Amino acid sequence: MKNIFFLLLLSIAQPVLSQTKLEKAITNLENNYEQEKVYLLTDKSQYVAGDKIWFKSFVFDGYNRSALSTTLFVELYNSDKKLIDWKTILLTNGEGSGDFKLKEDLPEQVYFVRAYTPYMNNFSEDFQIVKTIPIYNPNSTEALEISKNSDWSAKAFPEGGNFINGMPTKFAVRLSGDASLPESWTGKIIDIQNPNVPITTFTSFDKNVASFKITPVLGKKYQVIIQDNTGKSQTIDLPQVAGSGVNLEVSSSKEGIKYSLKGVNLTQQLQNYKIVGTINNHLAYKANITQLTNEASSLIPTKINNGNNGVLQLAIFDGQDNLVAQRLCFIKPNNLKIEKAEIIGQNLKQTPRSFNSIDLSPESVFKNYTVLVSEDDGSHNQDEENILSSLWLTGDFTTKIDTPAQYFSKTANSEALDALLISENWKRFDWNSLLSGSLPAIKTNSQKFLSYRIKPLKNNALLKDTNVNLVLKLGENEPVINQFKTDQNGYIYLDNLSFNEPLDVSLFVNSESNKESGTDNLFVTIEPLVTPTQFKGSFPSTKYKLVKAAENKKVSPAISRAINTQKNIKKTENIDVQIEEVKLVGKKKDPKEDLDKQLSTGMFSSINSTIFDFVNEDQQAAGSNNILDWLQGRAAGLTFQRDNSGVNVPYIRGQKAKLYLDEVPTDPSIITSLPISNIAMVKIIKESGLIGNAVAIYTMKGNMKSKNNVKETQNNNSSILKGYDKPSEFPIEMLDDDSPAKIENDTRETLYWNPNLFDSDYVPPMIKFYNNDSAKQYKVLIISFDEDDNLLYDKEILK
Q1: 686: Cβ contacts below 8 Å, ≥ 6 apart
Q2: Is the pLDDT of residue 286 over 80?
Q3: What's the first-to-final CA gap in the chain, in angstroms?
Q4: Cβ–Cβ under 8 Å, residues 178 and 201
Q5: Is 484 exposed, middle or buried (0-12, 13-18, 19+ CB in 10 A)?
Q6: Which of 97, 414, 652, 672 is disulfide-compatible with 693, CB 3.0–4.6 A?
Q7: Band of the pLDDT at 671, cuts 50, 70, 90?
Q8: Residue 18 pLDDT > 80, yes or no?
Q9: What is the pLDDT of residues 334-353, one digit of tens each?
Q10: Is there a contact between 231 and 238 (Cβ–Cβ < 8 Å)?
């Protein structure tokens, strides 16, 4: 926190010669409690087995997108904590996207998506996001139902944590339960000695909270009696009335947060008390009371958080630096700093399967958007959670909040949000632990991208302080040869790698005799250093329960539509496959010629060449140790001589030939370690332009498969690294009456999903999608951040 506001309630301050216990605690907090949180947006709230879950992740450090982490793990679990699937997501400016393809035989039940960065493992697992997702399957033997169980319990929380004789005190009453909370509830406060006459009454703001105010009398005992709309009631005790202490009152406005302190029966009154305000584990405000007084108050301006919204934690300490009161409050609850999208044009139609578009301004300070467009069915159901509630509430609080998005909606009640925060504690750090000097155990530092530790062995012995060659081949790219030296423990480290295609890593060492190659008796293991962790906690309770499915299982209209959409996708895919098959049959091709055109560039094209096709022809290569041994005697003018390492070196017409692997100059020792099953084509080139005499070897690409009956041999000197998961591309559906797929009823719910809609070169970023057969209006969600991390959040119903 860069802007720290200090206040002295006396014009003269005494110089501080050394840090006090509180000052040391604040230094500890500033230096050691950087923490992240995650918001996960999915395209829908419920799915059907066989669907694809599209998701966008936002990682925050406080209220800004995090620069700490570049890697996010997103995991899909069933209700028995069995890991179904997981993704490694690349984060750019705290944002990343991906998808899960659900299997069609997935049982119907509630599933959970867990998301966390490796750095988040340094702190409580409770702060990792676990998102509840119901997945339906009409063929499952069990069915999901909304539980009608309304068991709940209640607690009462005094403002500031103290209940003091003669001090008017605001209380928050908070309900909690495993399933659904009652729609509404009321309460009354009684004196146990006179229970028939209520002191005051209240009505709930929402399902979560209510508030009331009471002035207690020393020696009296008070109770709250709560009753919900179904008639269920519960009685809870208020805290015992104290004879002394500090009463804290807080109110929030657009100007800032006003606090008032009143001391009761304090020896030194409020002299030497300190007021400390923190935002996201950083000091934002500090005031010292140096006068003899029983009352003190002040306004904390919004500039402590640059005028932005957020939760401020106020903590009051006495003259001995003991925590005596604390309170959470929200900065500017009625003035949310949220930008709206600049829509400069739209062309929306209600016609089935029509083309629709929405143009965003190219002159906006927002340049990268997350956009979701869905059919609006007119139900106006409120979102249970959104990026606002995750950023300002649920990302930092571990207790369950029913429909947290309501506190930042257009009809939000700021009193309800204030009561909710009175009932919460900031659990990302504890003042008493800080004051005692405790430090968090940082076991995992935030690494940039992915890192690996490589351990080569030769003849089961470590290769310490040894030069080795490392060949890296990323996807279809050309292999790159690098020389490394193992450390004193025999390791090589590959740090800060960012890739989303398979990375083939092969190791070679110089041979020690003429009889062995650079890969003989070489074994290599590769250990990823950025890895997911086992989930040890418990999944959150949900409003769903599993029951035995009825014989004629009924599904909701939304699920029925999703099932029909899957059928349409399969039908379209089958038609596409048939069309491709027709195209292939319609044109007769020379397979070897096509393979040469596919793999060779112009410089390697020569009429004076001999081609061996391993994709379309069985070259009878079984039994050969490597491709160079196999080539002996198979092309006119091509001979081989063994070098000092015992490796065959090609010669053409008596001159040493150049050797290429995927058109990159290479060494014979590398070629001899290449499995023949990985080779697609070999081209012998004679006296051709810039190439001259050469042997060019090409490896398999894409879905190519070898026709050669070659027994696979394990290459212990190489390994394939997976890297980041590349997100799929969301399909832009265009279904019309003349479509060969003959789709009768287009029932897609998600019409457009783009987690990275860019504005480039002043071309208006355009949202383009096709209507389904029923949509008359559209739910459009747009999220973006500018360079200063100001938030754009716009959710509208457009017609």
Answers
A1: 606, 608, 609, 637, 652, 653, 693
A2: yes
A3: 43
A4: no
A5: middle
A6: 652
A7: confident
A8: no
A9: 999 999 999 999 999 999 99
A10: no
